[in-house]
Amino acid sequence: MNEDLDPEVAFEWPRDAMRDGDWSVAGVRWRVMRKVYPDHPAPWFQGIASHLRAGELDQAQGLIDIAKDKYPNHPSALILPAELAIKHKQWPIAQGLVSQAQELHAANPQTWIISADLAELREDFEEASACLCKAIECAPDRPNLLKRYAELAMDAEKYEEAQRRWGILRDRFPEVQAGYQRGAQAASLDGDNALSKDLLLKLKYGPEYISPDEHIETNQANQADQAVHAKPSQSPLMMLFGLIWTKAMFNLHSEVRRNYLSFGWWVIEPLMYMAVYQLVFGLLLNRGGENYSVLLMTGLIPWMWTLKAISASSGSIFGGQSLMLQVGVHPIMFPMVMLVQATVKQIPVFILLMGFVWFNGIGPGSHWLMLLPIMLVQLLFTTAASLAVAGIMPFVRDLLNLVPTGLTLLMFLSGIFYDYRTIDEKWHSLFLLNPVAFLIKCYREVLVDQAAPDFSGLAWRGVLCAIACGLLVVMYHRLRYVYPRAVME
Amino acid sequence: MEPVVSLVDVGVRYKRKGSIFRRSSYYQALESVNLEIFPGETLGVLGRNGAGKSTLLRVLAGILHPDQGEVINNGHSVSLLALQAGFDPVLNGHENAILSGMLQGLTRKEVTSRVDEIREYADIGEFFNEPVRTYSTGMRARLGFAIATITRPDVLLIDEVLGVGDQEFREKSEQTLTTRIKSGQSVVLVTHSQAQTRHLCDRLVELEHGLVHAVERV
Prior knowledge:
The complex is a heterodimer. Chain A is mostly helical. Chain A has helices spanning 7-10, 12-19, 23-36, 41-54, 57-70, 76-87, 91-104, 109-121, 125-138, 143-155, 159-172, 178-189, 193-205, 212-218, 220-230, 236-258, 264-284, 292-314, 316-319, 321-327, 333-359, 371-392, 403-412, 428-431, 435-447, 455-478, 482-488. Chain A folds into two domains: 7-213, Tetratricopeptide repeat domain (Serine Threonine Protein Phosphatase 5, Tetratricopeptide repeat, Alpha Horseshoe), CATH 1.25.40.10; 236-488, no CATH class. In chain A, helix 11 (159-172) runs antiparallel to helix 12 and helix 22 (371-392) runs antiparallel to helix 25 (435-447). Chain B is of the alpha/beta class. Helices cover 31% and strands 28% of the residues of chain B. In chain B, helix 4 (115-122) packs antiparallel against helix 5 (137-148). Chain B has two domains: 5-78 and 186-217, P-loop containing nucleotide triphosphate hydrolases (Rossmann fold, 3-Layer(aba) Sandwich), CATH 3.40.50; 82-148, no CATH class. Classes of the chains: A mainly alpha, B alpha/beta. At the A-B interface, helix 13, helix 14, helix 15, helix 16 and helix 20 of A face strand 1, helix 2, helix 3 and helix 6 of B.
């Protein structure tokens, strides 16, 4: 070996073996080092330490005898013999040597480590802790000392104290995993599960992981919202109305965006229906008459409002199954959204109807205001019908198959593409019991005949429909928790 | 300590509807379940498919009422972490955020004031203003999670959702939930991952055939 080599560089060779815990190999390598650097204390004392760790006590004893004479003032000249004495269980000798080291080499951490070893063997927890404290003071940059300090409390089953000590380790050496892992164990054994969980999470996500207090501070801006949520700022009813309106509006947006002609379809669709009926009844069957297209429009357009609301509502609660089970939304929302959607879509169509009537020479006037009570009664009827149909379906699913047929029957019995006055007069009162037929009659009275509708008939029908709506709302409320089950089962 | 929500002898059975060719039958999803959820604790619910875990969460959330026994809740809000609730593929991320947030019990004003927060958290860039149908599965999951986490119920119920999105977002979502758990919120977590429950839960409950099979303190 090159004797000019820096000894510290050369010593890395045996130190490697020490780091690997290969103490016998380290002992042999230090022997080589003693030959090359006979006047350097490290090969002697590190060699002794390696033999001690390897359990080669005789070899250690031999080296101690030489090293003590060679370096009498070196701290290891007292510490290592004390360690050997401990191995031989020669307690008084070990204690004597340790006391001597404490007197002469108080600034050396090894002095306090061996002192702690001895105290621990005597099961003197307090003394061992005090010695380790001094060792930590002498070598504040060694996390292993703090680790041992905390482990000492763990062994003594003093978990609260252990927790405090692991805390010191985490503060000084946040990168050392044991501080979190063993700290969590200590916290758990001490009964502080929250801290234990916290530490395990920090171990997983890194120490920069936000602690709860900091998180709350950084989210102060959100706290107002959180408080709001804990105590809703709106009544549940208002929130439900808001939700129904928003959902209906977004559904309309969504519907419009699906097609190239977007809003155009709201108007094109009734016009197409009208064209079909005009072709079949007016032209082919020659059932029309003067102003047949006006008669058709005044029947068809109000009818389509009710038709669309009922047919869209009928399966709506089934369609809302996943939402009801996910967020517990009120089942009445589903038919109501459909109703709102159908109603909003009806606004431009009604304007179209009025324009159409005007175009056909029946001018506008204040009598058009009389349309409002008719629309109100139709809204009440459509609401009641939609809620009833939608509400029954989850319980009697087979009825869903009857909805289209039922609506077709209703359409034929409502005088949409014919004037009810063309049927035998003896049937009139029975015919007008059908609310749709009655409403269409009223629309035509206002729009075509420019006359007042049957207000008393409207009034009692309106009241009945309003009562029906009220009863249906109560039913929905009562069955609120039954619907999610009904659609699942 | 007083529990936030208690289940006392709770049983839920579902009816398997019959037809003219088949008689109706019943399926017992939960049977005499007794369970208490304490403030600030994280309860893990383990169990195989069909063990009754989702039913248990729905009963806790008050979505399903039990057929037997009772759920005692002294006015605490309990809700499921609802991912992509009510998403409409034609609407854009912003609109879906508002709709989904409202479905989860916030007012429109409340959701609108937090849209930026949702946008930032979802981290899907310009796609936030594009229809959700153009999103990848991962982007959809990101948006869904971002919206779901703005609500703050007293008890949060999580049904196996910690595996959403790509690796990066999975870590982010997991961290958000663990922050919640850590900040003292009561959480009930249904999961198949034993490792995850060990990490996060204070207590574990194992469900088997609708019965609470074992309760273990972690």
